[in-house]
Amino acid sequence: MNRVLIGVRGVEQKEQMEKIVLALSKLEGVGKAVATSLGQVEVEYDAHRLTVMDLIRTVREQGFLAGML
Question: Which of 1, 7, 13, 41 has its CA 20 to 30 A from that of 64?
Answer without folding.
Answer: 1
